[in-house]
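Table S2 (continued). Query chain:
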Amino acid sequence: MERLKKEDKTKFMEKMRKAGDPDNYETSWDEKGGPKSKKKSEIKKGRTSRARGARFELQVRRDLEEKGRVVDKWNNNVDLPSKDTQGGHKNNQELREPLQGLQAGDSGEPDEGKLVIAKRKYNPFSKVMTIGVGFPDFISIKKVTDDLYSVIGVEVKMNGILSKEEKEKCAWYLKNGIFSQIWIAKKGGKRGEIKYDDFGEKYGGKFC
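Corresponding output:
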């Protein structure tokens, strides 16, 4: 018990040290009066990275619109099932092979997990609630015939790499017929070039 108190005191003193160093740290205070500090160099790096990402998102949106597609932000997300003791999803086998024998729009039985509104996040440094960030980034629609539309999801990744959880979410969307395709927009080799990977073609049932 004494050791725990000592560790808590050490952590508290470290937080106070950072809070008392305005040259290197930016500090805000939570609802309980505790300090939350971030290194200014990391804040600047994060802002630069987010700005680059936002600019690329805008480029992707304009490119899709030039291709004759209607584009809007997707403000939903997938709430995947809880993980089991082995660290994988309870229905991991189903998620691992979501596209085998699956035709566009043929969802079959609904997979575990559910579609939810993207959660809003509180930024303690700007002291505002940020708009919920959905996954994928965009919903894109294009009229094919009078009674047929192409409805796809578009996730913007400058390097084109998805996390395991993001791949599982893509699989869920396709298996449940939310989108007919999911494109991963990434930077091409040439300046200003945008390339699109079709999730189904790239990963199939081998993404886990």
